[in-house]
Write a structure and sequence with these properties.
The complex is a heterodimer of chains A (335) and B (119). Chain A is elongated and about 90 Å long. In chain A, strand 8 and strand 9 form a beta hairpin. Chain A is 54% helix and 21% strand. With 335 residues, chain A is α+β, with helices and mostly antiparallel strands. Chain A has a 5-stranded mixed beta sheet. A 4-stranded antiparallel beta sheet of chain A has the order 3-4-5-6, covered by helices on one side. A two-stranded antiparallel ribbon of chain A has the order 1-2. Chain A starts with a helix and ends with a helix. The model of chain B has no long low-confidence stretch (mean pLDDT 91). Chain B has 119 residues and is mostly helical. Chain B has 2 domains: 69 residues, Arc Repressor Mutant, subunit A, CATH 1.10.10; 30 residues, no CATH class. In chain B, helix 1 packs across helix 3 and helix 2 packs across helix 3. Classes of the chains: A alpha+beta (335), B mainly alpha (119). Strand 3 of chain A pairs antiparallel with strand 1 of chain B, so a sheet runs across the interface.
Chain lengths: 335, 119
């Protein structure tokens, strides 16, 4: 148990360290190196250097060398500040990391590429030289791709989260089980959805009453009500487990999902991150998985006999999983 | 809310259903003001008669744990909080008795005797 804990912690530390190295250290070091090179060649530069070229490769925009140096710093430090730093807290909390790894790799590639382009532009124009645009862009593209891919490769992929192994309940042969729960989205999120839909509705009503555009008001209201109705199908779900299996039904009655107890390969309780794993909240489809994801946190995960997964946000995921595992176990045995 | 009933057990089904609700309430998984699932749905899921579930809910109403309201179903009362507060003490007592090898019926009898002094 202890070794597993330590192993998990080391892996998570390594993930954080490589993430910070790729997403912050590489951009910062590349920026510092580029600025150092630019400053070292300062004396040989003309007052204004070419910084933009037309389609024929002739310069059409010039600026003072210090502007290029400043831009190097702004891009080289701004990209990791905007992309990487906000992601670190999420990364540390163990949020599944494909989007975060992408952010770090893009930070490294963008900052390094920019650092090279700025330094090369200045250096080649020092002492009366000109920029060879083709090779400059070619090298920049190679740097961008190589740094991006190398950065991506250095960061370890996420461990597939090891769900807690679920022990079926101790039941007598005649015992019957029924587990019921109603799961809803975060109330603030719900308020936000209603607010977003209601605000234009109110505006429309006021405008319609006062303005000449009364004819568009009715269809607009109908459209907005339709949107609200669609949103309502995803704000709350009744989750039911009995001998027949798992049923998840929207509080407005539709949609409804059912996994028969005879169709269950395995059951687990997991921690789900809607954005990290399913790209958002609500009813989500992701390669081989259907999710009813209402909030980050505990969820019940079912793998069907065909290997497809069904994930639903449930507060007492452990209990739900134990009950479902029990009925599935029984269904298999009696089949 | 987990219901588990065993038709072959000694206790009647409606008592078992009422026990399920008491257990959930004591464990803090049911709060005051929370609504119990409809008797019709529970009956359908457990494969029992709806009147059996209603009888269990009435039993709980008689002891003040739920309120039955037309149109709103069975709603947990504030008495739930009392049950939750007692939960740890009761579990501790049960664990102590089990460890000492005390028979369940002996402990039950002792508790009932002790309660008689307060009524």
């Amino acid at each position: 148990m202890n070794t597993t804990d330590r192993g998990t912690r080391t892996a998570s530390t390594r993930r954080t360290v490589t993430f910070v190295a790729v997403g912050i250290a590489v951009p910062v070091l590349a920026t510092i190196a580029s600025i150092a090179v630019q400053l070292a060649h300062r004396s040989g530069l003309p007052e204004r250097i070419a910084t933009h070229w037309n389609g024929l490769g002739q310069p059409d925009q010039w600026m003072a060398p210090w502007v290029a140096t400043a831009l190097t710093a702004i891009v080289g430090l701004g990209v990791p500040a905007l992309l990487t730093i906000p992601a670190i807290a999420l990364r540390r909390s163990g949020m599944p990391g494909v989007p975060l790894r992408l952010a770090a790799a893009v930070s490294a590639a963008t900052a390094t590429g920019t650092a090279y382009v700025a330094a090369a532009t200045l250096v080649s124009q020092a002492d009366g030289g000109t920029v060879h645009l083709g090779s400059l862009l070619g090298v920049a593209a190679v740097i961008f791709v190589c740094v991006g891919l190398a950065g991506w490769a250095v960061m370890p992929p996420d461990d597939t989260p090891r769900p807690a192994s679920i022990k079926p309940l101790a039941v007598s042969p005649d015992e019957r089980l029924a587990w019921l729960s109603t799961e809803t989205i975060n109330r603030w999120l719900a308020a936000l959805i209603v607010g977003c839909a209601a605000a234009p509705l109110v505006v429309l009503m006021v405008a319609g009453v006062r303005g000449p555009a009364a004819t568009i008001v009715v269809p607009s209201i109908v459209a907005l009500l339709a949107i609200l109705l669609v949103a309502a199908t995803a704000v709350g779900f009744h989750v039911r487990i009995d001998e027949r299996g798992l049923t998840v039904r929207s509080i407005v009655g539709f949609p409804r999902f059912h996994v028969a107890s005879t169709d269950i390969q395995s059951v687990s309780a997991m921690q789900v991150s809607g954005i990290g794993e399913f790209g958002g909240y609500g009813i989500r489809v992701r390669k081989g998985a259907l999710g009813v994801i209402l909030r980050p946190g505990p969820a019940l995960e079912v793998t069907r006999s065909n290997g497809r997964r069904f994930v639903v946000s449930v507060r007492s995921a452990e209990t739900a999983a134990a009950v479902l595992a029990t009925v599935a176990d029984r269904a298999v045995r009696s089949a | 809310m987990l219901f588990r009933i065993d038709p072959s057990a000694d206790a009647t089904i409606f008592m078992q259903i009422a026990d399920n609700v008491r257990t959930e309430a004591a464990a803090g998984r049911l709060r005051s003001g929370e609504r119990l699932p409809s008797a019709r749905e529970v009956a359908e899921m457990l494969g029992v008669n709806v009147h059996t579930v209603l009888r269990a809910y009435q039993e709980l109403r008689d002891e003040g744990l739920v309120e039955l309201r037309r149109g709103r179903g069975a709603v947990m009362t504030d008495a739930v909080d009392l049950l939750t507060a007692m939960h740890d003490d009761i579990r501790r007592l049960a664990a102590k008795a089990a460890q000492a090898g005390l028979q369940p019926q002996t402990l039950t009898a002792l508790i009932q005797e002790a309660l008689r002094e307060h009524h």
